[in-house]
Design a protein that fits this description.
Elements: H1 2-6, H2 12-19, H3 23-35, E1 39-43, E2 54-58, H4 60-76
Length: 92
């Protein structure tokens, strides 16, 4: 979800589609990311609006998490093209 928000998707429904997650899960994750300081939540609703109009932006801390995650991912990548983690061997 951090990558989706970093790429400029700021509305919750669009974030849901971009991350390919359910609405309830997106709400829970957004709340958690705000609590952890990885994203900022801004309410753009006016006093006349019946619905909330929240948008989300990634914070510097969130950018750092993405950076460190991508670095960790590079460390565990396997460079052997013949590597197959699961092989089923059948006796003939």
């Amino acid at each position: 979800m951090l990558d989706v928000i970093k790429e400029g998707t700021i509305k919750p429904t669009r974030i849901m589609y971009g991350a390919n997650l359910s609405w309830k899960l997106v709400q829970d994750i957004l709340s958690s990311l705000v609590t952890q300081g990885l994203i900022d939540e801004t309410d753009l609703s006016t006093s006349r609006d019946k619905r909330t109009n929240r948008v989300y932006h990634i914070t510097q801390k969130g950018e750092s998490v993405i950076k460190y995650f991508n670095q960790a991912k590079k460390l565990i990548e396997v460079d052997e093209p013949e590597f197959k983690p699961i092989q089923i061997v059948r006796d003939r």
